[in-house]
Design goal:
The chain is an alpha/beta fold and 257 residues long. The protein has helices at residues 30-45, 67-70, 75-93, 110-116, 144-152, 154-163, 169-175, 187-199, 203-216, 221-234, 239-248; strands spanning 6-11, 14-19, 51-56, 60-62, 99-103, 106-108, 120-124, 128-130, 167-168, 180-182. Helix 4 (110-116) packs across helix 5 (144-152) and helix 5 crosses helix 6. The protein binds octanoyl-coenzyme A.
Length: 257
Amino acid sequence: MNYEILKMEAADGVAVVTVSRPQALNALNTRFFQEMDSLLGEIAERDEIKVVVLTGEGKAFVAGADIAEMVHKTQSEGQAFSIMGQKTFRGLEFLEKPVIAAINGFALGGGLELALACDLRIASAKAKFGQPEVNLGLIPGYAATQRLPRLIGLGNAFFLLMTGEMVGAEDALRMGLVQKVVEPEQLLPTVLALAKTIAAKGPKAVKLVKHVVRVGSLMDFESGCALESEKFGSLFENEGAEGMRAFLEKRAPKWTA
Ligand code: CO8
């Protein structure tokens, strides 16, 4: 596919994907979703990519779904636009590689929903967060009503969803919406260092951490624990044997995948 909106640069096991439509503050249109679906397929196939970083070009991470595209939609087209986006974000959420959002600026509406589908969120001190859909007479359509309360609790989620208010990075940190806030110029170096830290861990173990947490979140507690035991066992006579042996032999482990 010929990418117009998404740019990817991969080095040292880390792929940095940049949403690049700064003239519209990286607003999400149909083309974005087509490109993201295609890129996720490519990332899944490239074994050398261990961790993905997602960021935005210019002053926004992503300022929401594209209002100019949505304004003309009928009821059924609106529903279809929501389903298409939910499917793409699900693909990101279940990609078998960690995804870190490097939130450089506005993360609003569908943009915050995109960040919520990532595994970790690191913010620039200049970033702004919000679910402003109610200002437009809308509700979120890319699963913020579901992911936000699970991530930051009902009270914080209702605050963002009902007021449409924008909050700064420190408030986002307090709510548990992001894991860390850094000065703007430190954002990419911090996120790249974090990505490289994760990329250096046991690759099968990292993959299974994500798998068990994500798939387990769709299960009842007992089924999730059974899945954990099964995957835990699968690392014996495998990567775990090397990791534990290396610890006992006081040397660095040699991972094979
Ligand atoms: N969609 C389309 N264009 C946008 C969007 C957007 N979400 N956000 C900004 N732009 C455009 C502006 O229209 C402007 O274009 P132009 O230069 O042609 O006039 C350009 O980007 C720059 O924006 P501003 O001049 O407004 O920049 P400011 O720095 O003054 O303001 C803000 C920045 C505060 C971020 C402001 O742009 C803003 O409020 N944007 C809209 C934010 C918003 O409401 N987002 C939520 C959208 S709804 C949504 O995401 C629902 C998701 C679920 C959809 C489910 C499918 C049905």
